[in-house]
Structure formats: C-alpha cells, structure tokens
Amino acid sequence: MRKALTVSAIAVVASMAIAAPATAFAADASPSPSASASATPGPKDDAAKSDSSDKAKAEVAVVSTPKDPTGYKAGEQVRFQVETSGDAKVSGSSDALSGISVKKVGSGTYEGTGTVKSGYGIGTAHLKVTADYGDTGAQGSATFLVNTDGAKPKPDPSKASLSLSTDGGKVGDKVSVTVKDAGSDSVATVKSDAFGGTVKLERDPQHEGTWHGTATVADSAKSGYYRVDALLDGKVVDSAKFGVQGKEAPVVGKSSLAVNPGSGKAGDRIALTVDAPSINPKSNVSVDSKAFGKVSLTLGKDGKWHGTATVANVQLGRYDVNSSTGSKAVFTVTKSGAVKPLKPSDHKTPHGSVNTGMAPADV
Q1: pTM exceeds 0.85, yes or no
Q2: What value does the CA radius of gyration of the chain take, rounded to a whole number of Å?
Q3: Which of 83, 102, 98 is nearest to 36 (CA)?
C-alpha cells in the first residue's frame, strides 16, 4: 500500500510540472487589449529553463499614433519598441503589416516598423514579437487599430519626384523647385548645402500632391557639385545633383590650356582648348591674351571648353595666355605665320663655341 501511494504521488507531481508551461503559453495566445505584454519564456530544454527563464523577456509597445483616430490607414507606418533583458535576435509578425523590420537601438532596446496593408478592413490588429536568446526565447504581443476601408494606400515614397529649373548656377541665382507625390498630404522641403540648408515648399492648391518653392544659391557655396534632397515629413524621397560656381578664386593646377598652333601672324586663326574636369559645367570659361584679346569658350561634348581667336596686329614676340580656370600657356606672334618644327634632316650645326645641333627659328 505504501509503495502504491508513492507512485501516485510521483505521477501527480510530474503532471503538474508538464502542464505548467502549457498553461502559461495558452494564456499568452489570447491577445490582450493592452498596448504591450510579455509571454512566459519558452526554454529549449528542461536544463536551460532553470538557468535562463529569469532573463528571457520580450515586452513590446506600439509607440506611433495613427493620423486618423479610427485607426491606421493603408500605407501608414506603425512603429513599435521592444524591451529585452539582453542581446537577442528580435523579429516581428502581423497579418496587418508588411515589410516588418527590427533594429537594435540600445542595450536591451529594439525598435521596429511595419507598413499597414491595404484591404485589411476595420478593427484591432495584432503584433507579435519573438526574442531568441540562443538558449531560450520569449514572445510579446501588442494591438493597434486599423481602418483601411475606403482609404487610398499612401504612395510609395520611392515614386516621389524632385525637379529643379536648372542643374547648376552661381552664387545668388534663384532656382525653382518642385516636388510631386500623388495624393500625399505631407510637409515638403528640400535640403542642400548649395542652398544653405533647408527650404520649405508651399502646396499647390490646384494640383494635389504637388509643392513649389524657390531656392537661392548660398554665398557660402563653393564651386563643385552638391546633392539636393527632397523630403516629405522629414524623410528623403528623392535626390538630384546641382552644380555651383562659387566666388572663390580658381584653383591653379586643376585645368590645362592648349593653344594650337602655338604661333602665328596677325589675322591668323588659332584654336583654344581648356580641360577643367573639376569645375562646374555651368561655369563661364574664357581665355585672355594681349596677342588676341579675351575669348569666351563653349563646353563641348568631350567635356572640354573650346573657342577660336584671331591674332591681333601687335608687336612680334611671345605673349602670355591665361584662362579663367587658372591654367596658362604662351603664344608667339611672328612675321610670317606659324613656325613649323624643323625636320631632323634640316638641323644645322652653327659656328661658334656652342654645339646645339639646332638652327634658330626666325620670328
């Protein structure tokens, strides 16, 4: 009799131990109306349970607020925060959200986002998160209101567009800016160092999802290219490249100047080429010399500036040629036109103490 009672007692104790975690899991399976909750840890084996159950935690709370008090609309983003008891692999799932992502923002703190699906309907949606600690795990759940009936999905931010009236300018120039995002009711701005910071745009009353504004190239802007970002509610949705011609003096050594031919008589036509890949294509590039005056160049398809000059009726001799980009060259005005290089067979040895092997050219 004593032996039978002992066996029965053992059976009862074993039954209670097995049922305990199942009861806790069942209680967690029913969504709570609270915004946050945590589930009983789920150890991977009985040995791990006693050592790690105290640290397993996954408390989740929805921290964003829907624009409409009746619930989040399709396309709106739901933000949530998860508190854990240490480093864990945290993931989330919800039948009302797509594109759920979670990232660590601090010790034991994670933040996540998801986008409300279209066609979900009206009601309470559930979010479940799981924290995997390696030797154990925990689950948490939260709820949020959704109302997608009759609502247009918010446009994908990647489809928003930014347009500028020009792709470059000098300090003080005005630039017209337009941002479009079909059906959006966001706050639109553009931001760039070329414009000295942020420029707020005004909504077009006649065209839904369109904003306009005017930006001014800042005095502080240096020559070069700048990124211009279009933002809706502070989020970058599109970008463009903008070139600036600043007030600073050109940097010598960043360009080259070619004069072809390098000599000629009055009335001759000569070709001028400036190669300056580091400056703004909208820059005004010119070449100046007492031999032919000042000549404005035009940007060619090869990315270089080209122009033609006519040799003036000036005194014979060598003249400096300067470009506005800082590069220099020399041009020689002659009596009979361009000096042609001598062929090796025409080289002569002059009389005297110096044997150069070259005959001097007449200018």
Answers
A1: no
A2: 38
A3: 83
